[in-house]
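Last lecture ended with a question: if I hand you only a sequence, what can you say about the shape of the protein? Today we answer it with a concrete record. The protein is LysR family transcriptional regulator. Below, first the input exactly as provided, then the predicted structure, then a couple of comments.
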Amino acid sequence: MRVMTEWDIKKLRILRTLRERGTVTATAEALLMTPSAVSQQLSNLAKQLDVTLLEAHGRRVRLTDAAHLVLRHAEAVFAQLERAEAELEGYAKGDAGQVRIGAFSTAVPALVVPAVRRLRETHPGLEVRVREAEAAEAYELLSDGAVDLALSLAAHAPTARDPQFARIPLLADPLDVALPTHHPLAAAPGLRLADLSGEAWIFGGSGPWSEITTAACEAAGFVPVQAHSAAGWTAILAMVEAGMGVALVPRMAAAERRTGVVMRVLEADQPRRHVVAAVRRGAEDGPAVGRTLAALRTIAGERV
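The predicted structure:
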């Protein structure tokens, strides 16, 4: 079995310089070496490759056919090393690398996708991978190292004092009321949440959205009567459109809106949900994660 030949990059560079400069003396001057050091390095390379690289040509030396063959393949190696060096430099600057995001459903189209589009324009070498995950799962993934950045609601995120995660506020997402177009209050001026205290409500049976709807209504002075339960906005808005009840809908879920539904902005008692990002503490200083957080903050700021 033939043992793989050892290719020494430094010595190959010396051989390439000799081809370019023509003499050992000129090569030594270009590389800030002594002529004897150049000769010794090339002699060692010839032994490593087990071929003759130089032959006498009068008072000078010239490269053999074997040397030209070696350099032809070495050029491909040099080119790949240049690409690797450029990619490493980009990685160090946050222009390259990979960032994995875990985000809740409405944050994906509203924040994550626009941020990814922006990063593709500004930092095409940075790869972002997205995984839809609700709050509890997102932080498990973050803790386990399966994602690098998690988006969730502040009420279900680790506190700012958590030693494991760093938490970054993104935006306060207003909650609007979804009413069927034929509802008596669909065009009422100065609509308040308390005006809907006697309505049938549609929201999740448990989890974040159930808690957010209940808390908002209680802050407005009433306990909502849950007529129907659904977790997805498509189902909730379909029921609103059918006149089966009303619902609080985050403005970030605008893409799910239907023609038979009126979205009303509440007046004085407008509830909001706070969206935050979290990373493993210290990771926010990493260049690739930092670029991604900056893009998310920019998109969030444009939504305010």
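Comments.
1. The radius of gyration is 32 Å.
2. The first strand starts at residue 54 and ends at 57.
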